[in-house]
Structure formats: C-alpha cells, structure tokens
Amino acid sequence: MPRPLRLALLVPVVIPVVIASLATPTSAAAEPSPPGSTERVEVFSPDGTIQQVEIPKRQVPPAPRAAPAATVTALQQTGPSSQRFDLVFVGDGYTSAEIATFQAHAASKWAEMTAVEPFSTYKNSFNVWMVNVVSSQSGVDNDPTQGVSRNTALGMGFWCSGIERLLCVNTATAKSYAALAPGVDQVVALGNSTKYGGAGYGAGGGVATASGGNASSGQVVVHELGHSMGNLADEYSTLNTTYNGGEPSAANVSKYTAAQLTSGRRKWYQYLGQATPDGGVIGAYQGGADYAYGIYRPSENSIMRTLGKKFNLIGLDAMTKAILAKTG
Fold first, then answer.
1. Are the beta carbons of 156 and 209 closer than 8 angstroms?
2. Of 47, 190, 191, 248, which has the fewest Cβ atoms less than 10 A away?
3. Host domain of residue 64
4. Domain total for the chain?
C-alpha cells in the first residue's frame, strides 16, 4: 500500500507579476505559420477517442506593445516545488471581469482530476497554480461557429486545421505565462468556452488545452499527465500501421507477446491475468503507441487509449512511482 503523504495545505497566495516581452493578444485565426513548421498534437473527441494529427505550428506576430499584467494565484500549495508536481493553469479569452470565472473553471478541472486515481490518493503531492491572464475579448476563435474571431492573449481557437474539436493554442505564449508560477511541470491552457475540446502537445512537451467551461474536458489533463508524469505511451492506434522498432522505454507498451513477456520476465509479466481498474484483466492486447500491429498494451481500454477510462495497473504503478520519486 502506498504510504500517505502529510497534509500541508497553505493559505492561497497571490503573486503579482508583469510580462513585458510576450506576444500581443491576437486572433488565432490570423496567425501565420512558416513553411515546414509543424507539430504533432492529440485530438480528443466527445466519445473519448483520441487520435494524433500533424498541424502547422501556430505563430503570433511580434508584440507592438507590452502584454497586460498577470497575477499568479495558488489554488493549492502543499510544499516546495522541488518536492511537488507543479500544475499550472493559464486562461485564454477571459476578460478582466471574468478572472473569477477562470479560477472557477480551473478549480473544477482540478476537482475532476482528483476524482481519478492516483491523483485522489496523492492529491497533496501537487501544487496547483492559476495564472490570471487577461484577454481583450471574451471567448475563443471559431466558437460557437467557424469564422468567429476574437482578440485573446493566447490565440486559442477551435477548428484548428479544419478539425472541429481541436482547440489549439500558441504554446510558446502559454509557456511564457506559465513560467510566472513558482514551478512548472505541466501547463494547462483553459479556453473560455463550454464546447467540448482540447489538444495535447506531446512533441512540444508539457502543454495541454481544454475547454474551461465544459464538464468533461478535465479528462484531457489526466491523459496528458500520464505522458508528462508517468512517461506513459499512448495505447490507441492508427489503422494499417505496424511498429518495427526496438523495445519502447514506456512501461505500458511492448513489442513482446504475453508468452514472451513471461518467458523473458519483461515489463508487466508479473501483472498478467490480474484484474485491472479499467476493466478486464492484464494481458498483451495488440495495438498501442499509435500503431495497430507489432506492439502490445497491457489492457483493453485504459485512459491512455480512451478518455473517461481509468489507468490500468501498469499506468497506476508508473504514476505512483513518479509521484513518490519526487515527493519522497
């Protein structure tokens, strides 16, 4: 049994900071992309399915003036950043009159996350920060319909690269604002919208987007923390693709069958046949790491494959080890 952490909640603090070199608030729809500049992102559908796509990297023109001041508020602070995971929420499309709405949205996402293991057990292993970014206009691009353009600090918008639920952000600007927090392990950009959507910037590392006002979009963050905290691979696949590489470093995918896992005492061989929180039993199910063949995952359908599911035993073990390694 994991040993419980001591509760050390502190009084929330507000840290005033001013950014003088960030990009100006701008519409995402108008952002140019240099030729050949692309990035891979995860797209999350309302039914929980996930896919990867390659899209043009979003750019923001140089700022003609300083960005507005921002403050940082602690939603939860339980210890020094050297011994905690720092989760940082930044908001987009929230005007100065809507900062309380942003903070309520961030709190709701944190509550959604901590209803899932291992975050419910290790809730106090996190510091959670809210960077109160002020936008000139309320909302995000292409919401509620395509063609709607808004002047916002992070340039977030739906219908990114023609995909309705793909909620993109300028990652460099999001990270610049997030860096105002005392520590940063994962950045979550919340768009001021009730429409379901999000994105995971795996290649860029540590940035996810979600709709602030949507009751289910916090699952995006849980999945992304599986990557950034537990070094877990995706467990979904793309049709007609075959993996031909070496043994992956991620704990939850392998090129070996169940029999080979057992004979070689590899990875999750000790878990084979055990019941798993996401349903069924641990085995070697074909498909994972975005490949349909030649690679196996531990369970039929964990949150690393479909949002709304739970971590499987292997994912839980990896996440718990990561938490204990940092928090002691």
1. yes
2. 47
3. 14-24+40-228
4. 2
Tokens of 91: 């908001």
The Cα 78–Cα 187 span in angstroms is 18
E-strand ranges in 140-268 read 186-191, 198-201, 207-211, 237-242
Same structural domain for residues 176 and 299? no
Residues 192-210 have a mean pLDDT of 83
Give the highest mean pLDDT range of 65-74, 172-181, 283-292: 283-292
Burial annotation 78-90 (CB, 10 A radius, 16+ → b, else e): bbebeebbbbbbb
Question: Does 107 lie in the same domain as 46?
Answer: yes
The CA dihedral of 275, 279, 280, 283, to the nearest 10 degrees, is: -80
Closest C-alpha to 14, from 131, 176, 96: 131
SS3 49: strand
Neighbours of 239 (CB within 10 A): 7
Mean pLDDT of 75-88: 95
Answer positive or negative: Cα dihedral of 32, 38, 42, 44: positive
The string of DSSP codes covering 33-48 is --TT-EEEEEEE-TTS
pLDDT tens digits, 106-155: 999 999 999 999 999 999 999 999 999 999 999 999 999 999 999 999 99
Q: Are residues 196 and 314 in the same domain?
A: no
Residues 178/228, Cβ–Cβ less than 8 Å: no
Q: Is 69 a residue whose pLDDT tops 70? A: no
| Kind of pairing between the strands at 70-76 and 14-17 | antiparallel
Q: What is the spatial distance between Cα 97 and Cα 300, in angstroms, rounded to a whole number?
A: 45
Residue 84 above 90 pLDDT? yes
pTM for the model = 0.83
Of 199, 302, 307, the closest CA to residue 250 belongs to 302
Residues 142 and 282 in one domain: no
